[in-house]
Amino acid sequence: MTKIKICGMRRADDILYVNKCRPDYAGFILSPGFKRTVDLETFRQLQERLDKCIKRVGVFVNEPPENILRYYAETLDVIQLHGDENRDYISKLSKECDCEIWKAVRTKTSADIEAACLLPVHKLVIDSYSQSQYGGTGKQVDLEIIRQAKITKPVFLAGGLNVKNIAEAISQVKPYGVDFSSSVETDGFKDEQKICEIIAAVRNSN
Questions:
Q1: Percent of the chain with pLDDT over 70
Q2: What is the pTM of this model?
């Protein structure tokens, strides 16, 4: 069964929606400077309301590892690194906490994915490449690039996925999981109906 992550939790309503629709993972943007960033106190309040069956994913972009370890690691199930973090950075986190660690790959070629598979992480998040953004572009990765890559780790597929293309994407790539954010929003905020519809579409595709 393909796992589902809904990313960009930032309001109490968002938590209510995912508690009702039941994805496998809920993501919180925890590095400053991004549209869906939440501060430490807001994160603590929101994650307390999140159903315990839904795993908590903290998304970080080039965050000092000591910040993650000090403020977030004990609360999170997963640390998702979405910046330029290298092997040494990842190894330090791995030694200091028990969280799963995922690395996002901003994919231009199959070689990008194959190189990321060599990093000491549990899973990869394959996202589209943008020179100006670390994520959240809403642009879909070329699925043929993924199909051609020699992938040795479980992967989440992210970027530009919606109810119209998700079944085909799962059929072609057969990812461990899929990741949604902007496609389950209306006017920039999470939409309960869209969340439930995309989760139903994923589960019906398996």
A1: 95
A2: 0.94
